[in-house]
Amino acid sequence: MKLPTQEKLRYHLARWIWVPALALVAHVAFPSGGADVAPLLEPGARADKDVVAPFNFVVNKSEDELQREAEELAASAKPIYEFRQRTYDSLATATAAFFGAVDAAADQGPQAIIRAAREFGVPLTPQEAAYLSKGGKRRALQQALQRLFDRTLAQGVTGPGVLQGEQSRELIVRRGSTESSVLRDQALTFNQYLNRAKTLHPDPGSSVGDVLYIKLQRQFFRPTLIPRPLETERRRNELRGSVDPSKYIVRAGDRIVGANEIVTNEAHERLVTLHQELLRRGAATTYSIRGVIGPLLRDSLIIVIFWVLLVFYRRETYRDLRQVALIGGLFAVLLTQGGLVARFYPAHPEIIFMPFLAMMMTVLFNGRVSMIAAMILAVVIGQQPVFHDVPATFLCVVGGVTAALSVKTLRSRSNFYAPVLIIAGGYFTGALALGLSSGWPIAEIGVRCLWGALNGLVSAGLTFFLLPVAESITHITTDLTLLELSDPSRPLLRTSSKRRATGSARTACWGASGAITTTSGKSKTRCTSWRTRSRATIPTTG
Questions:
Q1: Largest CB tally within 10 Å, which of 71, 162, 290, 408?
Q2: Considering just the CA atoms, what is the radius of gyration of the chain in Å?
Q3: Domain boundary among 176, 205, 236
């Protein structure tokens, strides 16, 4: 196997050294380090520069904050209590049936009343049975119980001790399909039921009647206001799940902290979140060797595609070290300018001078090379973490391709407005497509179109201004220069054209005067006069 000579190695090394060099330029120019974009400043520290959000991100709440807010929100859910109408109807029916059975057994004596009451679960003593055997006493007791039930159980009464553990100040009371909010203190409890019963006592002077009244009001009591803990907890869980985990929403371009400002707790939280988001997206940490080598290798693999193109399809360019150096210089200038945009205006990749590179390379080489270069650099720029949420790749490709195509319309440097309009139209179309698909407001679409048009104007101006310098470096006479030199309206070509026309006329006149000797005096005079005027007007060329 024949090894390459040192001369060949130097030959190729001088050209391929641009690949890692450009990758290094991209690594230095773009804010690839998490601490470069989001320095981890402690609260109370003073920032030495403006820190601007390069993309949209969200600052989430901590676990303690989420739990505390969830419990506060869950506590705001009022407990649900349901009024049981069927329970009230059931006890009212049981009470009426009890007194009906006692009425039927009253004529048979106290023992019959005791047996009838036992069927309803009411134990009676002989004295109590004798008390119920009296019709007046029995009806008064029945009416007192009915009034008690109508004024308490019909409104809703909770069971013993139910409201003691209730912390909410308000309750939701459901009656059928309707719900209403009621203060906890307004809901009747079992103790209030007993207190109401005392005010309705039918025979407070009788000890037997008092015991019997208390026994019956307790025997027939059924809570009609029932808590629904499962449903209440389900609602509270829904509220707990509805807690927004986002604490702050930071938009691209928002200033997190300004230069010489004191870092607040809020700014510190935003800086920490931005730093973590950059790490998640692949941004290198400042002191991570792996994080530095990774981006360098990634960008080198993308840029090397263009150099392979030069080796196989543009050998004449690859052989000329001046042309390779110019391409490397243009790439480096664009990456540097893109890095500045990423640091100061990361939300507007449409101001990256991709049209300038595309126009320059189209004029110097051709449109295919220019478009491939623009797309490769667009991928390099779009891979930077700072442009993760920004359509940088798309806008750079649109600007580069339209700029490459716009050069086809150029016939001279004087009509540079044509490529500017084409580039502006390309950015307008791209911004409109992104705006419609992403839901941008009309104002944002208009701003991006304006920046794109301004970029096209500046790029066209830089191209026409720097093109002579590039031609002198590469010794390339561009097609644009040849078109301008072949323009018949140029002063040099007009003078040359007049000389050719005048020389042809003089030759024809002199030939005619030598061949025709018998012309009239009038014709000879005209030829002589024309020769005289010709000598006076045609300059001597030497």
A1: 162
A2: 49
A3: 236
Residue 472's H or E segment, with its range, is helix 442-474
Q: What is the pLDDT of residue 83?
A: 93
Neighbours of 250 (CB within 10 A): 18
- Cβ neighbours for 530, distance < 8 A, ≥ 6 positions apart: 505, 509
- Clarify whether residues 38 and 132 are in a common domain: no
Q: Which residue from 312, 369, 292, 310 is spatially nearest to 33, judged by alpha carbons? A: 292
Same domain for 177 and 315?
no
- Residue 354: the pLDDT is 93
E strands in 111-268: 170-175, 178-183, 225-227, 246-250, 255-257
For the chain, give the longest Cα–Cα distance: 180
What are the distances in angstroms from CA 312 to CA 275, 305, 306, 326? 43, 11, 10, 19
In angstroms, how far is the first alpha carbon of the chain from the final one?
Answer: 64
Residues 304 and 216 in one domain: no
Same structural domain, 326 and 266: no
What is the pLDDT, as a whole number, of residue 76?
A: 84
CATH code at 307?
Answer: 1.10.1760
**Domain-located, residue 522:** no
Answer yes or no: do 231 and 291 share one domain: no
Domain assignment present for 456? yes
Mean pLDDT, consecutive 10-residue segments, the chain of 542 residues?
A: 81 93 91 63 82 82 88 87 92 91 88 89 90 89 92 91 84 89 88 90 88 90 91 89 86 83 87 79 60 85 94 91 93 93 86 92 89 94 82 92 79 68 90 88 90 91 87 78 62 62 50 42 42 42 34
* CA dist., res. 406 & res. 409, Å (int): 6
What is the domain range of residue 326? 10-16+285-485
Six-digit token string for 42: 């402690």
CA distances from 323 to 53, 310, 329, 400, 401 (A): 39, 11, 10, 20, 21
Distance CA(425)–CA(398), nearest Å, equals 10
Asked if residues 98 and 117 have their Cβ atoms less than 8 Å apart, the reply is: yes
What distance in Å separates the CA atoms of residue 375 and residue 267, rounded to the nearest whole number?
A: 37
Q: Output the pLDDT for position 487.
A: 58
Q: 118: which residues sit within 8 A by CB, 6+ positions away?
A: 124
Residues 228 and 355 in one domain: no
